[in-house]
Amino acid sequence: MTFATDSITFRRLSRADFPLLEQWLKKPHVLRWWREPLDGAALEAKYGPRIDGIEPTFVFVIEYDGRPVGWIQWYRWADYELHARKIGVAFSDAGIDLAIGALDMIGRGLGPVVLKSFIDQIVFADSSITAVVSDPEASNVRSRRAFEKAGFGSGAAVVLDGEREPRVIVRLNRTGTIAGP
User: Fold this and answer.
1) In which element (H, E) is residue 100 found?
2) Total structural domains within the chain
3) Which domain CATH number covers 49?
4) Selection from 6, 134, 127 nearest residue 65 by Cα
5) More exposed terminus of the chain, fewer Cβ within 10 Å: N or C?
6) Owning domain of residue 21
7) What predicted TM-score, i.e. pTM, was given to this entire model?
């Protein structure tokens, strides 16, 4: 399926979105990777500070033709120094995470289009960001393919403290050229 980029929009996450976010986080295709079946109080604890601007992660709802279908967030790696050092990224790089929560939108090619649109419209609007780097789990083939289709290059694998599954570092430079981390 081909997705029109002008049909994809992003709006800041609000507390009114918590019931929908809670539903998505409980869906098996999301829970497998996010491992956070959060209830209302836990959503407030995790996402409330982001909504209020206290925590430096910027969370958006992904909409397709006006329908919420998932969420995406970005952050400056400088604000998460420990994780940044572990995966070997520059503090001028941004991180990004997303999940398509609507089951009927999975496996249709929406992820790469969302990534490209979001990075162009939102992340690279900040001229201080030199690249976008993420670290999907090695076994999350669907996520890794979405990053690749969006133009990211794959680099080294790393196992984070407290985790067993290796993560693959993916990177997209501001210029759009693919480079390893």
Assistant:
1) strand 93-100
2) 1
3) 3.40.630.30
4) 6
5) N
6) 5-173
7) 0.91
